[in-house]
Amino acid sequence: MIVAAPCGCGGRRITVDDETMGMAYSLHDLTVFLKFAGLVGGDELDVVESDLIEWYGGGPEVWPRQGGGPDCWAVPGEPAPRVRETRWT
């Protein structure tokens, strides 16, 4: 699983096996993605300690919320890829 660097909207793109799962806005969101993918059955501490995650642009403590839009992580000059926008609370 790859957790991309934070984008302007405060979320981080989550990718599993080259498939974009969506955007996570918190460690809790990431935990839900991992459970959905069948990679962990634990809690947020298990996610923090998991060797299955590659972190870019900061580790599990980095979840900024700064405005922006759903395509804030698109490559300049290219359209944003379609993703499932999912937020859990």
3D structure, described in words:
The chain has 89 residues and is α+β, with helices and mostly antiparallel strands. Helix content is 17%, strand content 17%. It contains two helices and four strands, in the order E-E-E-H-H-E. It has a four-stranded mixed β-sheet, with helices on one face. The protein is globular, with a radius of gyration of 12 Å.
Provide the low-confidence segments as ranges.
66-71, 73-78
Alpha carbon gap, first and last residue? 21 Å
Order of helices and strands: EEEHHE
Q: What do the pLDDT scores average to?
A: 75
Helix tally equals 2
Keywords:
89 residues, alpha+beta, four-stranded mixed beta sheet, 17% helix, globular
Topology, element by element:
Layout (H helix, E strand, L loop, with lengths): L1 E2 L8 E5 L2 E6 L2 H10 L7 H5 L5 E2 L34
Parallel strand pairs: 1-4
Antiparallel strand pairs: 1-2, 2-3
